[in-house]
Amino acid sequence: MRIGITCYPTYGGSGVVATELGIELAAMGHEVHFISYSQPFRLSGRDDGILYHEVPVSSYPLFEFPPYDLALASRMAEVAEFYDLDLLHVHYAIPHSVSALLARQMLAARGRRLPFVTTLHGTDITLVGLDRSYLPITRYAIQESDGVTSISDYLREKTVQDFGVTRGIEVVPNFVNCDVYTPIRDDDKRAEARKRLAAPDEAILMHLSNFRPVKRVLDVVRIFAQVAREVPAQLVLVGDGPDRSAAEWLAHDLGIQSRVHFLGKMERVNELLPLADLMLMPSELESFGLAALEAMACKVPSIATSVGGVPELIDNRVTGLLYAVGDVDGMASGALSLLQDRARLEEMREAGRKTAQSQFCSSLVVPHYVRYYEQVLAGTA
Ligand code: GMT
Known about the structure:
By secondary structure, the protein is an alpha/beta fold. The protein folds into two domains: 2-175 and 362-378, Glycogen Phosphorylase B (Rossmann fold); 187-359, 3-Layer(aba) Sandwich (Rossmann fold). The protein is built from 15 helices and 13 strands. It has a seven-stranded parallel beta sheet, with helices on both faces. The chain has a six-stranded parallel beta sheet with strand order 10-9-8-11-12-13, sandwiched between helices. The longest helix has 18 residues, at 342-359. 49% of the residues are buried. The model has no long low-confidence stretch (mean pLDDT 95). It binds ligand GMT. Ligand GMT is lined by residues 12-15, 17, 92, 121-123, 151, 174, 210, 212, 214, 285-290, 308.
């Protein structure tokens, strides 16, 4: 198949899923065309079977807000015609599904078919899509898509309830490449690699996000402060975003800044994750929680909140520990209980890896997308 993919190319779960999907599809022999305003950050630019098409957005004095969605629609239609695309797959409804709808109409007027699949990722429904200025057009574009997928049952139900979408929505969960996100099996090698981040007797807690308010990064620092009072430990935060500076100041004010490391945006998180003992994901909301899955595949259990689609990924007390939003004390004592009971931590590490392999590996989930594309092309989705 020749597949066009549009996503936000910046640091964020939907862009990561879209990019990893494109890479996996290309490895299966499909031709993949990314269409976006800049190259998705996990693409190297040298991936076989993948082409990247930049969307130029002109700015004129008259345009207070340059219309990216229109430039995107034009480019989608051009790329689809030039490269004879079979379908478009857009990640994150706003504005991508609206642009795809326009591109489909433009090509229909020229006698060409261009079906599109919209994948709902989370805040496109739970936050942005509920803004009155975006809701009607987002609902329309979702309803008119040739196929719609959501990353969890939670998000599907939310879309039906809050948007009144009546067309079918296929749940295709987030996935991880279990050969790339994998534990370091050799204990000596792992111990050696951990020395980059901590002393041998210290625990390593990790957080990975785009530091938006929804991630509650300040809770990460507060949880760590309590843990570090009881056991020797280091906190490693990967990513960047609006709440980073507040989190840095909080670490400073709590007197723990020497043990809190802000690494910023990193490309190869698969090399860092296996070094951690625990992942902290105290989010206000997660429609799935990709960071926790990537950690799980590396045998790192999460201390997380029981929100949105997280319970569909993490089996409480089996593959991680779940708490109410803002329960910093609970999450800190949960983290401590695992760090002080190595046998239980080891069981959880094993159980998490097994879950990642048996339910969320790219080798299982990507073919689900391909089957769905086939249904879309056959008009049966
Ligand atoms: O979490 C974010 O703010 C980024 C956002 C995105 O769309 O870029 O992530 C959402 O999509 C991820 C990939 O499908 C999910 O794993 C995240 O749970 C989801 N975030 C939220 O629902 C808050």
